[in-house]
Design a protein that fits this description.
- The chain has 424 residues and is α+β, with helices and mostly antiparallel strands.
- Strands 1-5-3-8-7 form a five-stranded mixed beta sheet, covered by helices on one side. Strands 4-2-6 form a three-stranded antiparallel beta sheet, with helices on one face.
- Helix 2 packs parallel to helix 6 and helix 14 packs antiparallel against helix 15.
- InterPro entries: DUF2254_membrane.
- Pfam families: DUF2254.
- Keywords: Membrane, Transmembrane, Transmembrane helix.
Length: 424
């Protein structure tokens, strides 16, 4: 029962990344506020304010109807334009940069809140307009509610101005890459803070009991703390087989346990694995390396030909790899300094190869890009103290040199690189 409740709560939490989540919540808030004003109007708030502050109350039925109708029509126009701008942003980002950027752009919290303000204003004005009686005196008119509709329209206009500013900033590739870097570095730093001494003994899982996935999709999130609690309560070590962000097919091995567990316990463990059709950097820092690599590769395509963007992407990759050097390839989840869960992670060698392979393929002909890549690799080599990491970096340096020698034919280019002491 507890596992099922946690699964429902996680599902609700994952809705926050949907473009319609916050607009829906704010729209319900606007509707609820309209009904609150109905109640206050029934208590005579407009009549009371008309006697004390008559300037704050709309006391003409025709004026109130005209204002509300105009606000509704204007808010709908603003909302349609804003949604159109969002679609243009998503289309341009997908065409010029990478389709992988779309989930992050769609989950922009500020844009969701602004769209919610539009919808809430429209619904509030519609309900207020309905409450105006066809005939009645000035004390029956919801004058104060109409005044609040004007206030909400002013807020909507301010939100629209901010929206235009925000959307113009969001489409700039430098801001997109900076956002990717900040989210992924925050995630990496969090993982580094959670790491402890990973040299503790953990038995080989070759003879452990394997359990398969019952769903298909990207492994987006794993509730490792809950799994560790189950492992501790049953004195059973658990190993998670797939890496976070990998695509899981039904019947693929999902996890192994040190000893067999009951069916109910296994069903509870399965609810701690969340699958989705998309990936987010907040859940998987490896996606940031993929996105920055794809941006660099797309920038070097003949249709775009933007080496400056590729250079910026490589600079961000350098900073991320400098953080990744500090992380171990093996991760555990602890309870009371005892490791209970072994988590599969993308090792440094695989991550380095997955980044460098497309960059070498599409950027090897550009001497400036090659130089910057070699700068990155040599910088990482100087920072690393792990022999396995150093070996991977040396292999990528040699691979890049080999590909560059085949693609670059100008002797002056070799001289330029040689002056940078890369010894090609």
């Amino acid at each position: 029962m507890k596992e099922r409740l946690l699964y429902i709560l996680r599902s609700i939490y994952n809705l926050k990344d949907k473009i319609a989540f916050f607009p829906t919540l704010i729209a319900f808030a606007g509707s609820a506020f309209a009904y609150l004003m109905f109640y206050l109007e029934s208590l005579g708030i407009s009549k009371y304010l008309l006697e004390i502050l008559p300037d704050l109350v709309i006391n003409n039925t025709d004026t109130a109807r005209t204002l509300l109708t105009t606000i509704i029509a204007g808010s709908i126009s603003i909302m349609v334009f804003s949604f159109s701008m969002v679609m243009v942003l998503l289309n341009q980002a997908s065409s010029n940069f990478s389709p992988r950027l779309l989930p992050g752009l769609i989950s922009n919290r500020r844009h969701q809140v602004i769209l919610g303000i539009y919808v809430a204003t429209i619904l509030y004005c519609i309900f207020t307009l309905i409450s105006i009686r066809p005939s009645g005196n000035e004390y029956q008119l919801p004058g104060f509610s109409v005044l609040l509709a004007i206030v909400f329209m002013v807020i909507s206009l301010g939100s629209f101005i901010y929206f235009i500013h925000s959307i113009s900033q969001s489409i700039q590739i430098n801001n997109i890459m900076d956002k990717i870097f900040r989210k992924s570095s925050t995630r990496l730093i969090h993982l580094l803070d959670c790491e402890k001494d990973n040299n503790l003994p953990f038995k080989s899982s070759n003879n452990w009991h394997s359990y398969q996935a019952t769903k298909t999709g990207y492994l987006q999130h794993i509730s490792l703390e809950n799994i560790a609690e189950v492992a501790k309560s049953h004195d059973c070590k658990i190993e998670v087989i797939p890496t976070k962000g990998s695509f899981i097919l039904e019947k693929d091995t999902l996890f192994k346990t040190e000893k067999p567990l009951d069916k109910d316990i296994l069903e509870g463990l399965s609810t701690n694995f969340d699958f989705a059709k998309s990936e987010l950097i907040e859940d998987n820092y490896v996606l940031a390396f993929k996105q920055l690599t794809e941006i660099a590769v797309k920038a070097m395509s003949p249709g775009i030909n933007d080496p400056g963007t590729a250079l910026n992407a490589i600079d961000y990759l350098s900073q991320l790899y400098a953080l990744r050097l500090k992380k171990n390839d093996i991760s555990y989840t602890y309870i009371d300094n005892t490791p209970w869960v072994l988590i599969a992670t993308v090792n440094f060698s695989t991550l380095m190869y997955d980044t460098m392979a497309p960059l070498r393929t599409y950027c090897k002909h550009d001497v400036i890009i090659v130089k910057r890549l070699l700068t990155m690799l040599n910088h990482l080599k100087n920072l690393s103290t792990n022999s396995i990491y150093l070996k991977s970096i040396d292999e990528e340096i040699e691979n890049l040199k080999e590909d560059a020698l085949r693609a670059i034919t100008n002797e002056r280019d070799f001289e330029y690189i040689e002056t940078e002491n890369f010894n090609i």
